[in-house]
Amino acid sequence: MTQSEKTIPVIIIGGGQAGLSLSWYLCREQVGHVVFEARTACHSWDDERWDNFCLVTPNWQCALPGHPYAGTDPHGFMVKDEIIAYVKGFTDSFTPPLREHTRVTSVTRHEGGGYRVVAGGEAWHARHVVIASGAYHDAVIPGYAGAIDSSIMQVHSQAYRSAAQLPEGAVLVVGSGQSGAQIVEDLHLEGRKVHLCVGSAPRVSRFYRGRDVVDWLADMKFYDLTVDDHPLRDGARDKTNHYVTGRHGGHDLDLRLFAKQGVGLHGTLRTIRDEVALFQPDLKDNLDDADRTNADIKASIDAYIAREGISAPVEAPYVPVWEPDGENAPLDLKAAGITSIVWCIGFRPDYRWIDVPVFNGANKPVWNRGVTGQAGFYFLGLPWLHTWGSGRFSGISRDAAWLAGQITGKDIPVA
């Protein structure tokens, strides 16, 4: 250890809900630690969500440690400002040793054991380091986007705010996961002509047989299913989230209904060349597969209702309201009046600043419930770190309590 290094037992990198949840437990256990946050604690909710963003899971699933949802609408869906207030309320509920606007630029193994962390230009030494910076670092935009005429505005979903942000004219949305499907609805409700490139994302109904589907799945213990017990095992981490919305009290996002109302649906985008979009011939398959996933979820709920002898209203099977005509014609962007593109094709993690051997050949971190093969080095807040809720408000407290137990050697109950 050099004379200028500062020493502390635990360093948490990332001051979002994951890092702060672990901080909450470490504060309660009186474990010395510091939380480094490159921006602010609420920045991802404030700076990287559109104006009409809302939760897609009901408010009752918001369960940060010692700070459960306490509002009057547990089965509603908090909008952006309410989410920010919820996270800020959690941060204000204790005194985390949080250092905002302090970016970590390197993490290496320390010659004296533990790890050396450079943050805000200062060097620190810690026996335990927790990476809680999430997995959504670099916005994905394809290389050919740079060749598209500059008269067509391009934004990533991370930077999309509202229809008013975009120039007048039609919009091409690329990607039909949660963000893409919700942004299509946002634009459609504003009266914009929208074209959507439909990928392989599955869908789920908001309500079924008298209840929110999330309520049924919670009763069925789906959210307690660990990644080790999931049929896909580690593959669950790579699956796209089901599209649905909590907007206006919650409802299905049916892309077929959008098409019936005038939204142009196309297959997976192959490329854009000379301002002409070319698509895969998979639109029908993608729509059918999404509906099939939804039907499978409903069937599992039906089986649970029957097995438990629950009285619940019966619903007729879903009947598609629109079918593609089988054509896969290219789309001339300018002829279609398209003046902007919203890229909704995800993110890549950026761990280049971590020089610790915890990654596989695909440069993905390897862990078991957040614990890596390097003593004292952990990850927290990633999708399916342990369960479905690991990257969400619903399950982060359980993961944080468990990692706090690994750090302290104690059995720490979930708050």
TrEMBL record:
It comes from the Bacteria. One of its GO terms (molecular function) is monooxygenase activity. The keyword Lyase does not apply. Keywords: Oxidoreductase. InterPro entries: Auxin_biosynth/cation_transpt (IPR050982), CHP04046_FMN-dependent (IPR024000), FAD/NAD-bd_sf (IPR036188). Pfam families: Pyr_redox_3. Gene3D superfamilies: FAD/NAD(P)-binding domain. This is Uncharacterized protein.
